[in-house]
Amino acid sequence: MDRLLLTEVAPRDGLQNQPIFVPTAGKLELIQRLAEAGLTRIEAASFASPKAVPQMVDAEEIIAGTRSLPGVEVSALAMNGRGLDRALTCGTPQIATVVAATEEMNRRNINMTLDQATAAAEEVIGRALQAGVGVRAYVAVAFECPFEGPVEPAVVVRLAERFAAIGAGEVVIADTIGAAAPGQVTGLLRALLPSLPAERIGMHFHDTRGFGIANAHAAIEAGIRRLDASAGGIGGCPFAPGAAGNLATEDVVLLAEKSGLATGVDLSALIAAVDIAGRLLDRPLGGRAMPWLRRSHAQAVGDRR
C-alpha cells in the first residue's frame, strides 16, 4: 500500500487556543496515547511567549517528557530566535516555523512585515540546521487571509520555494482559517509541484467551512502524502479570526484506509486518545466520522466477546 504520513498536531495546535488549561501530565498522557495509536510524527509543544500562548508555558517539560517515546518524531513550534534558543537548549529534535503569506497577518501576529517575517524565519531555519535539528516550514493563510482576503498562489509558491532552497526538509501549506475549497487546493499544488517535489510538501487544513476532508482528498489526488491532522478535530489559531478546528485525524485515517493508503494508525486506539483529549477539555470531541467509528468499534468489541 502507498503510505500517508500524518503529523499529529493536537498537543500543540489543538490545545494552544483552548480555554481550559491542560496540565503537563495531561498533555503527556495525550501524547503517549497518540503514540500508542501509531502516530509517529507528533507536534508536541510551542516555544511561543507564555504571555501570548499561556497553554504552552510548559514546552520544556513536554519535550523532556517525550524523549522516551520509541519511534516517534517529536517537533515543536519556534517562531523566532528566542523560541529557537529555548527549543535547542532543551534538546528539541525538530522544529516548525511559520510565515504568513500576507502583510497584515504578519503585522497582527508578530508585528512584522512579510519581508521581515520571512527573514526571521530564514534565520531560524539556518540556525536550526546548523544545530543538526530538522525543520518544517509553514506558509500560513496560504489560501485566504482573515484581514486581506484571497491570497495569490504566486506568493505562496515564492515563499515555499525560498524555504525549500535554504534547507527546510518539509514545506507545509496551511489553510489557517479553513477557507479553501478542493479546486483551490488542486490549483495551488499545480503551481507548486513543478518546482518542489511532492515528498517535500505537507498540507495543513482546518474544517471551518466543512471542506477539510474534501481538501485532504484533493491533496492526495495531486500526489501529496504528508498531512497534518488533530485528534478529535481540536484546534484553532488564536491569532487568526475565524479559524475553527483542525481536520480530525480520525477522518483522515478513515479516508486513507478507504483510498488504499496505509497510515499505521489503529483507529480503536485513536478513539481512546480522542476520549483522553475530551476528558482534559471537559467536552465531547470527534471528527465527522466519529459517530460511525464509535458504533463500528462497539460492534467489533461485542463480536469479539
Q: Please give the count of helices.
A: 12
Strand order of the largest sheet: 3-4-5-6-9-10
Low-pLDDT segments: none
Q: What's the story with the biggest beta sheet?
A: 6 strands, parallel
Rg over CA atoms, rounded to whole Å, is 18 Å
Q: Helix- and strand-based class?
A: alpha/beta
Q: Approximately what portion of the residues adopt beta-strand conformation? A: 15-25%
- The count of β-strands is 12
Structure overview:
44% of the residues lie in helices and 17% in strands. It contains twelve helices and twelve strands. The protein has a six-stranded parallel β-sheet with strand order 3-4-5-6-9-10. Strands 1-12 form a two-stranded parallel sheet. The longest helix is centred in the middle third of the chain and has 17 residues, at 114-130. It starts with a strand and ends with a helix.
Offer a few descriptive terms.
six-stranded parallel sheet; 12 helices; alpha/beta; 305 residues; 44% helix
Short summary of the structure?
The chain is an alpha/beta fold and 305 residues long.
What does the secondary structure layout of this molecule look like, with pairings?
Elements: E1 2-3, E2 5-8, H1 10-14, H2 24-36, E3 41-46, H3 59-65, E4 73-77, H4 81-89, E5 94-100, H5 103-110, H6 114-130, E6 134-140, E7 144-145, E8 149-150, H7 153-165, E9 170-175, H8 182-192, E10 201-205, H9 212-221, E11 226-229, H10 249-258, E12 261-262, H11 267-281, H12 290-304
Parallel strand pairs: 1-12, 2-11, 3-4, 4-5, 5-6, 6-9, 9-10
Antiparallel strand pairs: 7-8
